[in-house]
Amino acid sequence: MKHKLYILLFILCGHVAAQAQELNCRVAINASQIQGTNTQVFTTLENALKEFINDRKWTSAQYSPAERITCSMNITVKEYTDDGAFKCELIVQSNRPVYNSNYNTVLFNFKDTEFNFNYLEYDPLEFREDMIDNNLTAVIAYYIYLIIGLDMDSMAPMGGTDVLHIVENIVQAAQSLSETGWKAFDDSKNRHAIITDYMDGGMQPLRQMMYDYHRLGLDEMAQNADRGRAKITESLNLLKEARDNKAMSALPQLFVEIKKDELINIYSKGTQNERDGVYELLMDISPSQSSDWDKIKSAQP
Is this structure's pTM higher than 0.85? Predict the structure, then answer.
């Protein structure tokens, strides 16, 4: 009997491991700007969001506990009223481990300044992709699926397509909401613009770059730094191609803003030809960061 119990426990534990949730997300709410109100509602919301994000299975993909995507969502409350109206900023970041190293690279980092919603303490947090009627869970689900899709793109060419289509569906369904951030042409960096640009055919080189840069480049550097760096250099040409295809898109510049410190470190050991070429390319994409790119050009290997 005891032997059978051990077998049952082993099967159950294996099933739980196979069905592990996708995200290991740290959630923090900063309400220091709000005075003279019951602060318990912020703690309650923070705990509810942690559970909503981390305890739910968002896709059919199989993740082991060790494979869960490390990410964070930091919410700053700018305004709050006792009837549950929140005006907030949300900073979302996701990381990806680099193979054969203890280094984690930032895959996505973005500040959403239009995160407004209504929430009363102990309101249940619910989400249905086919019925978007709550801006709080709609925005959070949007970034959850975006994080998962981008992570998949970095692991396999266009690997996140199915998940990223869900992001598109959320945006489409959210058009009925009155809150900002969902409409086309309102802002080149709002939620609508990010996913619409990313899935545009002209930006396909950027999606391919996500795989080449991370899987073929960074993941290779622990084994062969020169070969990995050469692949990263090739991938940045895809980034330029995407920018040339859709010059008004903010995504290529957003990528180099996220990666600037990493790129400076990578090319600190590059050849002069590599550094000169990457310098010119990055200056073309984001000339406002010239002081950062100067560090690449002047690096001494």
Answer: yes
